[in-house]
């Protein structure tokens, strides 16, 4: 069996003890295959009330805590987790499935479909079928946005990002979609120039990974129309895509009034 990066995943049978190092994957597994998760990161906030052992953060998990849980499979992501940690787990004899950082909604859903049907040997979950249907169409473009995901320094969505594709399907292109980097770090003066020049006409501020609020973010762009969004709905791939379609569309609609 191979993961998204074409690495071997030595499983003799579907795993019954799983540790997830990716919040979005944690939610997807908990909803799809209840009872299999034994560990997750401190940032795995969904589903609410998830009762599993915590193993630290995605970037810096406590590998000893992961190993103590005796997982049959660890779930990781090529962007959120460090290759050295993945290698250390594999050297310790743990099977690790690494999901490629998805550039589109379709890519994320295809990856999840492979994980569930191949590694878990379970049917494609209903939420995935519904998400595929909801996100298949693309709405006409009505705005061009700057989408910061961090401040101090400013970091924005660039090329080939899942969040960028989510917005595009709801009619919002973003100003750095053709940038050479996936997460550019432009100066504030450059970001302001995007609006002054007409290259962008909307500021989109999610509440994670940086928690932008009405008092923290818009203050740097006086007079620029902005919208506050759920970062989970914007960047998590999994069951949240179902509710996220309507919720994001509703939030964005406020900017069109």
UniProtKB/TrEMBL annotation:
Matches recorded under InterPro entries? ABC_Transporter_SBP, Vit_B12_bind_prot
Q: So which domain of life are we looking at? A: Bacteria
Which family is it part of?
Belongs to the bacterial solute-binding protein 8 family.
Protein name per UniProt? ABC-type Fe3+-hydroxamate transport system substrate-binding protein
Q: Which organism is it from?
A: Saccharomonospora amisosensis
